[in-house]
Amino acid sequence: MGKADFLSPKAISNRIKAKGLQKLRWYCQMCQKQCRDENGFKCHCMSESHQRQLLLASENPSKFMDNFSNEFKQDFVELLRRRFGTKRVHNNIVYNEYISHREHVHMNSTRWETLTDFTKWLGREGLCKVDETPKGWYVQYIDRDPETIRRQEELARKKKHDLDDEERSARFIEEQVQRGRGCKEEEDTPSYTELKRESEEEKVAFNLAATSAAGPSKSSSLLGASALKAAAASTKRKEIPSGSSSKEGKKKKSALEEIKEMEERRRPKREPLKTDYWLQPNIIVKVVTKRLGERYHKKKAVVVEVNDKYTAVVKLVDSGDKLKLDQNHVETVIPAPGKSVLIVNGQYRNTEAILEGIDEKNFSATLTLDSGPQKGRTVHNIAYEDFSKLA
What we know:
Layout: H1 9-19, E1 27-28, E2 33-34, H2 38-45, H3 48-59, H4 61-84, E3 88-90, H5 91-99, H6 115-125, E4 128-133, E5 136-141, H7 146-188, H8 216-239, H9 243-249, H10 255-266, E6 284-287, E7 300-307, E8 311-316, E9 322-326, E10 330-332, E11 340-343, E12 351-359, E13 364-369, E14 378-383, E15 387-389
Antiparallel strand pairs: 1-2, 3-5, 4-5, 6-7, 6-10, 7-8, 8-9, 11-12, 11-15, 12-13, 13-14
Helix pairs in contact: 7-10
């Protein structure tokens, strides 16, 4: 019987079977051969090559099983890390994606009989977080990369530092409010004195204001007299020295006014000088955007020209390529202590300095000014983003 035509249904079916996944029970892991049906698998098991592989495996079966198990574990965990990261996902979803690769290691050649046993083993070894639900077992990869752990510790330390500042400010404001409430209560509390008469013959007199029941002529004369008295009182008030005004100045201020004054005293003078742009020519920056690809990601460059305060033309140090980037796509570069830097923001903008030391906990540095009228002065707590290495 001749070979089937290329476009015949049988030939198309054979090509589809050969391209896709076959049944697991007709796969030989030792020979890494997939058979299409039961007859083909039976013929393969009787072949000489398969018999030789069985003789090799019978000498040390645990070694072959450990190799297959380690390979299966490494490929499975790598797929979980690369594809799903640290997300919580059903173990069957990961396994289905893993076996979609035709040359994968089959589970029947490993030490684990079922996927559930393998999932429990991952949890016992501490490679993943596993939990059982009515829908099945879920796994979550645990990232133990030293770089990732260091980055998480830095973020946690910075968050704690910010929270400490906020708590300190809230505590200070609460103290000011309590102090203001206490002062207000003291002012509002009336003081009572005992009524005493020096002599029994002395009479108690009350001066009541006269009513306007008299005629129009009497009321007009009263109005004129009151106007003259008001004018005389105003001239006397002008002639009185500023003793009363000093008493008013010494009057206790409210809690809100005290808080405003304390905040103005505590606020550094350099904050109003900070701007939202910092790019300067002849400084070294690092490209942090991933939109340009891995070729330029985390590469250092020199700022050649600054346009519109927020964009700059940079030249890569390694390749010499020129790029036009926004300031959000780059970050400052912190050199080693003793190197020259340029302060790009704050009170000492456009001033060259020498890096003396770095405070990793507060994300700041200590600089010694190397130019300008304050040359030789040492300034502390300069943020990382406010200075950069000179080209």
